[in-house]
Write a structure and sequence with these properties.
By secondary structure, the protein is an alpha/beta fold. It has one domain (9-111). It contains 4 helices and 6 strands; from the N terminus they run βαβααβββαβ. The strands form 2 sheets. Strands 3-2-1-6 form a 4-stranded parallel sheet, sandwiched between helices. Strands 4-5 form a two-stranded antiparallel sheet. The chain is globular, with a radius of gyration of 14 Å.
Length: 112
């Protein structure tokens, strides 16, 4: 099994361009449905991007209400650009991944 019901999963989307571009809420919704079918609790699913306002302007509030998942903005949660994750196998990870690490490091997460 790729995820277990006790995992916390962060779904990184690109919402900056707004409702007409970036990651469509329907795509994130399909991923959420798969995670729910795998047994994850909605409260263990976080849809995130750099800014919470961008998520809201792109229509992710409706998605969060429909599925009961959380929305998070890394900048709003105190993201520190000086904190990043380096792995000898993967190398230095891209900015979006270290935003997630800084945002949910206290709970752990699986990236989709």
């Amino acid at each position: 099994m790729f995820v277990s019901p006790k995992d916390v999963v962060g779904i990184k989307v690109y919402s900056g361009p707004g409702a007409n571009s970036g990651t469509r809420p329907a795509v994130a919704g399909a991923v959420i449905e798969g995670l729910l079918k795998a047994g994850l609790e909605p409260s263990h699913i976080i849809v995130w991007d750099k800014r919470l306002l961008d998520l809201r302007l792109a229509g992710y509030d409706d998605l969060a209400r429909r599925y009961g998942v959380r929305l998070e903005g890394a900048s709003d949660a105190g993201f520190d650009e000086k904190v990043f994750y380096d792995n000898s196998i993967l190398g230095t990870l891209v900015a979006g991944i270290w935003i997630l690490t800084a945002t949910v490091k206290r709970r752990g997460a699986i990236l989709i």
